[in-house]
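lol forgot to send this yesterday, sorry. struct tokens for the thing we talked abt
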């Protein structure tokens, strides 16, 4: 069944039908489409446009369609143009003439705009739940590794000692911001377009605020042209997903590096790894690599839809149908990546001994050695040069600063005393960093307390 055709004198070309149809992908909207229709007819009856009897018959028919779709008793008819025509045709078939009144005071333009908002809102809530689960996993790892030392990096060069808790805490902040972005998008988009008609409203006395309330919106949209042509919230959501994927990709890159034979900081669980068809020794971090790779796919959806929207005049244009397939793919990709990444790090084992040894061997305590001199009256710039000379000496001998004899320290600068070794121990280097946001265990416990409260644990 088509929702149009009265002014046409010949059938649409079959290739055009296939090219124009959206049911293969907008069938995802069946719940939202039926929910919106039930709210619409409830409002129509309240306004006296439909009788209460007609309302009840239509809602009963819609409920039966929903039940049959979900049970599999009602398969989607591939000859239908879209989900809207599929539902309406089935409704008329089931209840007769009252079903023909469903579309009173409504256009497919505001109908699809409503469905898209309802669907997007549901997906934002689902993605927020997935991010919350990921944050709980990160929190657990942080709480268990406040004293697990590892090298911190800049330029992929060992820089200063930190802890696993501190390192994972950086990603906690990233994903926390991602949740905040989703909350902002949800709030900004939560206005109901139903009743905007094709672009100029309708002559029927609709109560748009009542419809909005029935559908849990904060209110009705205020411009009918913008209502049917606005896709900003999809672009914002695609942008938020791109940022989520960027964070997952950065994290994945580090897991890949840490899992390498050269680092051996972590061991991935067998359930989240794969092997090689020819090299029996291999255990590959495929999940992390796929997350990293799929990030470009989500970026592509964002750039693709921005390009689609950039030249569209008001109001609705068929171009906007292109919002769905790339949007759905980005949603599926991002949600799948969050879930798999969460499982991967939740089962990942840390090689704490290797991490600590790596921090010791990388001169990550060099800055603390310089600070030792400053605290003993040596100007920082001079201290920086002195420690540079000591590092060169250690490199030449293949040892760390902890292993350098005190006599060699004092030969370059007599200020050094026996307590230099305590001053540059990993424990001291980490624990004396007590400013908010630093890796010191005292301040880290305060941060974890805030995180626990944020997570509602």
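and heres what i got for the seq, position by position
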């Amino acid at each position: 069944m088509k929702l149009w055709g009265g002014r046409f004198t010949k059938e649409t070309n079959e290739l055009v039908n296939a090219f124009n149809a959206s049911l293969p992908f907008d069938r995802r909207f069946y719940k939202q489409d039926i929910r919106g229709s039930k709210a619409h007819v409830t409002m129509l009856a309240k306004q006296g446009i439909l009788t209460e009897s007609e309302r009840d018959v239509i809602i009963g028919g819609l409920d039966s369609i929903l039940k049959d779709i979900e049970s599999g008793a009602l398969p989607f008819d591939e000859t239908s143009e879209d989900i809207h025509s599929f539902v309406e045709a089935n409704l008329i078939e089931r209840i007769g003439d009252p079903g023909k009144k469903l579309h009173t005071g409504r256009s497919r333009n505001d109908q699809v705009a409503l469905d898209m908002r309802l669907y997007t809102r549901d997906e934002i809530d689902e993605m927020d739940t997935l991010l919350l689960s990921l944050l709980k996993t990160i929190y657990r790892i942080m709480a268990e590794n406040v004293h697990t030392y590892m090298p911190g990096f800049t330029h992929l060069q060992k820089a200063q000692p930190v802890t696993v808790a501190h390192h994972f805490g950086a990603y906690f902040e990233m994903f926390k911001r991602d949740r905040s972005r989703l909350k902002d998008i949800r709030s900004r988009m939560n206005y109901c377009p139903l009743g905007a008609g094709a672009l100029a409203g309708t002559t029927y006395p609709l109560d748009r605020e009542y419809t909005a309330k029935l559908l849990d919106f904060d209110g009705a949209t205020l411009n009918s042209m913008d209502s049917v042509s606005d896709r900003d919230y999809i672009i914002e959501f695609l942008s938020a997903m791109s940022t989520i994927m960027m964070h997952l990709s950065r994290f994945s890159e580090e897991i890949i590096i840490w899992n390498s034979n050269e680092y051996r900081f972590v061991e991935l669980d067998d359930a989240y790894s794969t092997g090689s068809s020819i090299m029996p020794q291999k255990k590959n971090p495929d999940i992390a690599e796929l997350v990293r790779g799929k990030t470009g796919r989500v970026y592509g959806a964002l750039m693709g839809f921005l390009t689609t929207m950039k030249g569209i005049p008001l109001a609705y244009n068929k171009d906007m149908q292109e919002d769905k397939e790339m949007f759905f793919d980005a949603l599926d990709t991002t949600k799948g990546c969050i879930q798999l990444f969460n499982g991967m790090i939740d089962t990942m084992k840390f090689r704490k001994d290797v991490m600590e040894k790596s921090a010791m061997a990388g001169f990550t305590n060099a800055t603390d050695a310089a600070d030792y001199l400053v605290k003993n009256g040596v100007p920082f710039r001079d201290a920086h040069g002195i420690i540079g000379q000591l590092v060169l000496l250690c490199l030449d001998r293949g040892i760390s600063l902890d292993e350098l004899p005190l006599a060699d320290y004092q030969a370059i600068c007599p200020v050094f005393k026996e307590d230099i070794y305590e001053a540059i121990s990993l424990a001291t280097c980490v624990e004396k960093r007590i400013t908010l946001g630093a890796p010191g265990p005292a301040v880290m416990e305060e941060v974890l307390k805030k995180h626990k409260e944020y997570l509602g644990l």
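Residues 108-144 form the longest helix (37 residues). anyway ping me if u want another try
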